[in-house]
Amino acid sequence: MDSINRSRETYFLDKLLDQTFGEEASEQIRAFLSTEHIYVSATREIVTKLENLNDEFKYSQHHNPIHQVTARVKTPRRIVEKLARKGHEMTLASARQNIHDIAGVRVICSYVDDLYLVATLLTSQSDIELIREIDYIKNPKPNGYRSLHLIIAVPVFMSSGPESVKVEIQLRTIAMDFWASLEHELAYRLADKQTEQITRELKDCADVISATDMRMQKLYNAVIQSGLG
Ligand code: 0O2
């Protein structure tokens, strides 16, 4: 995920590349750019909620469940690519309906239990509507990818009234994020040249990381129960 503060230059380059998508798609891209601020506002709402939860825990439990939060809005080029990949219509309305991660927030937690706690506390807030939960921790992807994905809708208050905006929230541990970041980079470098051996090796690393996450959780629980920490 890119930072939400990415420079306008990124967009400029993105728009240049968009020329390859033809006039119709370019028109839709221009339409998206005029509504992008709604998605930026939605991620800001979620980030604030997460920061508030983390602060509350810091004072009441002396523990920060959240290690890091990042947010980004998908660039028009990536939206157009995803619409094409999934065989959807190249329109702004289709993007809004079918692309659930135009607005994305990634929550990195120290421990597995923390990420489930944060997910429960966030989705139980009265203005958050949980649309879909995909648990790639209980059911990892075949390549070993693990994260908890939530598709939620949050109201954004515009001058014309409230607008419900979808946001994809990815919750993972530091260890899961380490694997996903490196795998993402390797997958991009290798594209269709990824061999069976590399795939197996990556899956193996993911499983080792998952086992380590479980051990760290047990260690943390034992330290807390013993009253040592
Ligand atoms: P980026 O650059 O991270 O935004 P669906 O929701 O079913 O219509 P979608 O959106 O493909 O289809 O769902 P999925 O598979 O849950 O993936 C959503 C995002 O999860 C991806 O966004 C990645 O960020 C992350 N992700 C999913 N699978 C993997 C994986 O195998 N490895 C890594 N590193 N990340 C993964 P984007 O749009 O692909 O990219």
Order of helices and strands: HHHEHHEHEEEHH
The count of DSSP E runs of length 2 or more, i.e. the number of strands, is 5
Helix count equals: 8
> What percent of the residues sit in helical stretches (DSSP H or I)?
40-55%
Mean pLDDT: 88
Molecular shape = flat
Give the C-alpha Rg: 19 Å
Strand count, sense and closure of the main sheet?
A: 5 strands, mixed
- The stretches of 5 or more residues where confidence is low (pLDDT under 50) are none
Lateral strand order in the biggest sheet: 1-2-5-4-3
Bound molecules: ligand 0O2
Strand content: 15-25%
SSE topology:
Blueprint: H1 8-18, H2 22-33, H3 36-60, E1 66-73, H4 76-85, H5 92-98, E2 103-109, H6 112-123, E3 129-135, E4 148-158, E5 161-173, H7 174-190, H8 196-226
Parallel strand pairs: 2-5
Antiparallel strand pairs: 1-2, 3-4, 4-5
Notable traits:
8 helices; alpha+beta; single chain; five-stranded mixed sheet; binds ligand 0O2; 229 residues; 5 strands
Structure description:
- The chain is an alpha+beta fold.
- The protein is 55% helix and 20% strand.
- It has helices at residues 8-18, 22-33, 36-60, 76-85, 92-98, 112-123, 174-190, 196-226, and strands at residues 66-73, 103-109, 129-135, 148-158, 161-173.
- Strands 1-2-5-4-3 form a 5-stranded mixed sheet.
- Helix 7 runs antiparallel to helix 8.
- Bound molecules: ligand 0O2.
